[in-house]
Write a structure and sequence with these properties.
Chain lengths: 114, 109
């Protein structure tokens, strides 16, 4: 079974520039998550989709971050404009609606803002 | 809001020693999950506990869920160098899954 796919793996941008990350979840997984993991911390949920609807985006900085999952499959997370404090790993994850919400993570997109 | 705290933040042991990390939630949980993240890697699911007082074992790993469903622990017996990494608990409250800050385990061979 293929895992959660993410791209790009690494990105370095200057502050105030924009960046976009792409995620393709495990086939059949209706729930998709974007997490932000700052070095030395646990993953923090940015947004959760159920199919193509948003379930939770309470911790998404909406003035600069946006995410979409138009067809209920793959998803894009955008940051514009980026700040230095956005340097982190952006983890996409997916889960079945049932099965206890076990979350399967992708390898992450490492962002450095300089 | 719901908070999940883990202690200790760091733990360094000699290979063969035991290791325990503790997880405490500010609210009662419906379930708790444990993940392992190797250096440079992504979190990988280890186990889920659902029932009050539940104990589960995976080889040298023992997971416990407290009677009040607000705390949990992970115990590793006789650590090996392959156990190196950061162990996260994640507690599911009313709606969302909240991760602790993790316990980073390093091992002296």
């Amino acid at each position: 079974e293929a895992g959660v796919a993410q791209s790009p793996r690494y990105k370095i941008i200057e502050k105030r520039q924009s960046v976009a990350f792409w995620c393709n979840p495990i086939s059949g997984h209706a729930t998709l998550y974007w997490y932000q993991q700052i070095l030395g911390q646990g993953p923090k949920l940015l947004i959760q989709f159920q199919n193509n609807g948003v379930v939770d985006d309470s911790q998404l900085p909406k003035d600069r971050f946006s995410a979409e999952r138009l067809k209920g499959v793959d998803s894009t997370l955008k940051i514009q404009p980026a700040k230095l404090e956005d340097s982190a790993v952006y983890l996409c994850a997916s889960s079945l609606v049932r099965a206890g919400n076990t979350i399967y993570f992708g390898e992450g997109s490492w962002l450095t803002v300089v | 809001g719901q908070q999940v705290m883990q202690i200790p933040q760091y733990q360094h042991v000699q290979e063969g020693e035991d290791f325990t990390t503790y997880c405490n939630s500010s609210t009662t949980l419906s379930n708790i999950q444990w993940y392992k993240q190797r250096p440079g890697g992504h979190p990988v699911f280890l186990i889920q506990l659902v029932k009050s007082g539940e104990v589960k074992k995976q080889k040298r790993l023992t997971f416990q869920f407290g009677e009040a469903k607000k705390n949990s622990s992970l115990h590793i017996t006789a650590t090996q160098t392959t156990d190196v990494g950061t162990y996260f608990c994640a507690g599911k409250g009313a709606q969302k899954l909240v991760f602790g800050q993790g316990t980073r385990l390093t091992i002296n061979p």
